[in-house]
Amino acid sequence: MKQYITGLESPSSMKRTLIAEIGTNEAILTVCGWVQDIRILKNLSFLVLRDESGVCQVTVKNLEKPFDVASLNRESVILVDGMLVPQSQSKTGKEILASRITLLNAAKVPLPLAPFDKVQADLDTRLNNRFLDLRNPRISSIFRLKSSILWGIRNFLMQNGFVEVQTPKIVASATEGGANLFNVKYFEDEAYLSQSPQLYKEILISAGVGRVFEVGPAFRAEKHNTVIHLNEFTSVDIEMAFADAEDAMRMLEGVVDSAIQNILEANRKELEILGIDLKRQPLPYPRVEFSECLKILGDAGIKHDPEEDLTPEDLRVIAGRYSGFYFITKWPASVRPFYTMPDHENPEFTNSFDLQYQEKEITSGAQRVHDPAMLRSRFASKGLNPEDFDFYLKAFEYGMPPHSGWGLGLERLAMILLGLKNIRECAIFPRDRTRLKP
RNA sequence: GCCCCGAUAGUGUAGCGGCCUAUCAUACGGGCCUGUCGAGCCCGUGACAUGGGUUCAAAUCCCGUUCGGGGCGCCA
């Protein structure tokens, strides 16, 4: 009674019906998917069959023996030929009376992770068995949403005249210092994995691209062990010519709003599965100067060195004043990279900004230094050797426009919009301090 | 790099010196059940991360190792 695969019986997608489309087609149909649940009664058995579009119930009359249901394991892949039951009593709303069931591939028992168990597995167990974890729509919804977030971002940038580029991820020098880079062998040379496309974006501004963006991986060799850091993350980077920090901030809030708008329109189902109540936040997002943050901290009785970066504790206090997204602007030069433009009036501050969501930093951006002489002195003040950046500096010597830009952590944005507590949830195969597989 | 915490069946947990022949749920195997849908009921299988030590006695206390969780620093 068991029917094994020969490999030659692979179903054609031409005659396969997606579960979501059941009821719109003929009454005799073929569905394929994973066995999510098995309930065996005396005279009949029920299967819950799942494909990428949804679930339906498959009813098997045991006496007719279209298949030995008892031999089936959860999460095995089957093909079901059968008839649509017109008025189904199933809670899935869709029911097929099986005339034939073909086992396409069996799942071993026990499952290392049961995606539909009543007990929730730990994140570590889930990530070790990500292919099973992702079979649960609660998990796969995260990545459908992330995909839509990125589409909303791309759509907005394309509409605003940006060109998408791909810059190298194997690079010869650091963008902001040397400590946090992964080494790679590049034939006879020493190379690194790129921590940011910053230098290339700026060179492209000199190249006359005008508005440029990139979505790509960024690598940070920091041994951080937190719920908001990955060693490989997706960076959305833009750079705009003839633009100041305010222009870049406007583009940034536009991008975020477009991402939210897009998932509200396109992903009602996924938002519902995850129980997310997401709302657009009116533009513009509040702008708060760094010096104002120090006052807020002062009011809370926290003394803060004006040359020092804000700590997570500081940001929690500041976040008490703002709900949702807000910008912190005019950061001190001491905590910003060499390419950040100093403020004309107060050169110890910069024309820079971070986009925050409560206490979490999502984006860092600024107007950039476009004058090569100023850039050289900034290298010196950061203790960097200009010779390491010769290919970069060269682009500034022959007509570099004033320009601004930012880099946004896609997983950070996703975790915030989706209300997830650990950034690893937002990376489909995350790389963290110890995780190199799968 | 620093600091805290943890590791018990496939999964998730209780136990924290003798009452442990280790709890419960879920999963898994068997049986019953004319439509189930977190199915139900009965029976059963299955675990103390690892190496040392303390003790009459260790899942339980101590040390090392490995693995995991969280925080800080750094950042997106």
Could you walk me through the main structural features you see in this protein, from its secondary elements to its overall organization?
- It is a single chain.
- This protein is α+β, with helices and mostly antiparallel strands and 438 residues long.
- The chain has 2 domains: 19-105, OB fold (Dihydrolipoamide Acetyltransferase, E2P), CATH 2.40.50.140; 132-426, BirA Bifunctional Protein, domain 2 (2-Layer Sandwich), CATH 3.30.930.10.
- Helices cover 26% and strands 25% of the residues.
- The chain has helices at residues 123-128, 130-133, 137-159, 198-206, 245-266, 268-274, 290-299, 312-319, 372-381, 390-394, 410-417, and strands at 28-40, 44-51, 54-61, 77-84, 95-105, 163-164, 170-171, 183-186, 189-193, 211-219, 232-241, 287-289, 325-329, 352-357, 360-367, 403-409.
- The strands form 3 sheets. An 8-stranded mixed sheet has the order 6-10-11-16-15-14-13-12, sandwiched between helices. The protein has a 5-stranded mixed beta barrel with strand order 1-2-3-5-4.
- The longest helix has 23 residues, at 137-159.
Descriptors for this entry?
16 strands, BirA Bifunctional Protein, domain 2, RNA-binding, OB fold (Dihydrolipoamide Acetyltransferase, E2P), 438 residues, 2 domains, alpha+beta
Number of helices: 11
Would you tell me which CATH topology of the largest domain applies? BirA Bifunctional Protein, domain 2
The CATH superfamily of the largest domain is identified as: Bira Bifunctional Protein, Domain 2
Radius of gyration, in Å, reads 27 Å
Taken from the alpha-carbon principal axes, the silhouette is elongated
Order of helices and strands: EEEEEHHHEEEEHEEHHEHHEEEHHEH
How many domains? The number is 2
